[in-house]
Design brief:
Elements lengths: L4 H12 L4 E7 L3 E8 L3 E8 L4 H14 L7 E5 L2 E5 L6 H6 L3 H15 L11 E2 H4 L1 H5 L10 H16 L5 E3 L8 E4 L2 E4 L5 E3 L16 H4 L2 H15 L3 H21 L5 H16 L1
Parallel strand pairs: 6-10
Antiparallel strand pairs: 1-2, 2-3, 3-5, 4-5, 7-10, 8-9
Helix pairs in contact: 4-9, 7-10, 10-11
Length: 282
């Protein structure tokens, strides 16, 4: 029987890295993930990229490799479209928030962000510019939005353009930093699944304001928005108004993605008015 491309890549990876057992753990549109064993003792992950998302996933893998395990899961090796990486067996930071520990999670995010944004030599060459990442927002027809929310789209789009018009530092960005992309390990909280972007460091905090999943009342609480701002400003020294601008911009971008995919934008319709109001008052 002929093997599928994923099965072939898995077989070759098992031989290449002397692995002894594999267990499927996830099959996403962009990749297939397997928990693997080395000599029956040490665990790791094989991430096999699918052609439809290989370019984007490869950017993320190159960025993870560049992090060198500092604030992120360690990449052991990359061969073609197969990534051999550290196994993280703890829960996510989203689990911690859903258990009632949002304040502690925010402190962990601050420490993690500082690690990811720390200076390192030799940044990856193929990162996606942040403006290109936002192209779906600029390409969206306002009529795709619900009639009652079109003013939100217009205001967020205007803020986004102003952010790009104002110079900022340009550093490698995780690009999808949120509570459920941060996992616990023996050596602390570690990020996974970066997008591999290049741009304003404040953008890496934007997705935090509309997460974690399953906490709609928390996401639309103005007091929580202010608590996040206080922590990020005090611990990372980031500008409040610019953080809110990126949070609103990302919320609108996320809504555009979901509208294009035929998915609900309820979370962003709840969060975006609050983010825009806070931005105007900052």
């Amino acid at each position: 029987m002929n093997q599928s491309p994923i099965e072939t890549a898995l077989s070759r990876a098992m031989i290449r890295w002397s692995l002894t057992k594999s267990t499927p753990i996830a099959d996403t549109p962009g990749s297939a993930l397997f928990k693997v064993e080395q000599n029956g003792r040490n665990f790791a992950v094989l991430k096999i990229l699918k052609p439809v998302a290989a370019e984007a996933e490869r950017r993320g893998a190159e960025l993870m490799n560049w992090y060198g395990g500092n604030g992120a899961a360690t990449i052991f090796d990359i061969h073609g479209d197969t990534i051999f990486m550290e196994w993280l067996d703890g829960g996510t930071l989203g689990d911690a928030v859903r258990a009632g520990h949002d304040d502690q999670a925010t402190i962990a995010i601050c420490s993690l962000t500082a690690s990811l944004h720390g200076p390192r030599p030799g940044a990856p060459e193929h990162l996606l510019p942040l403006r290109a990442h936002f192209q779906p927002l600029f390409d969206t027809d306002i009529r795709a939005w619900p009639h009652t929310a079109r003013d939100l789209f217009a205001r967020a789009s205007g803020i986004t353009l102003k952010l790009f018009d104002r110079p900022s530092a340009q550093i490698p960005l995780h690009g999808d930093l949120h509570h459920d992309n941060i996992l616990s390990a023996d050596r602390g909280w570690l990020a996974i699944d970066p997008k591999g972007l290049l741009g304003d460091p404040l953008y890496d905090l934007a997705n935090i304001f509309r997460n974690p999943v399953g906490m709609p009342d928390l996401v639309k609480d103005p007091r929580r928005i202010q608590a996040l701002l206080d922590a990020f400003a005090d611990r990372l020294g980031y500008d409040r108004k610019r953080m809110l601008g990126w949070a609103a911009a990302h919320s609108a971008l996320s809504a555009c993605w979901n509208l294009a995919a035929g998915k609900s934008i309820a979370v962003d319709l709840a969060a975006l008015p609050l983010l825009l109001s806070a931005h105007d008052q900052a």
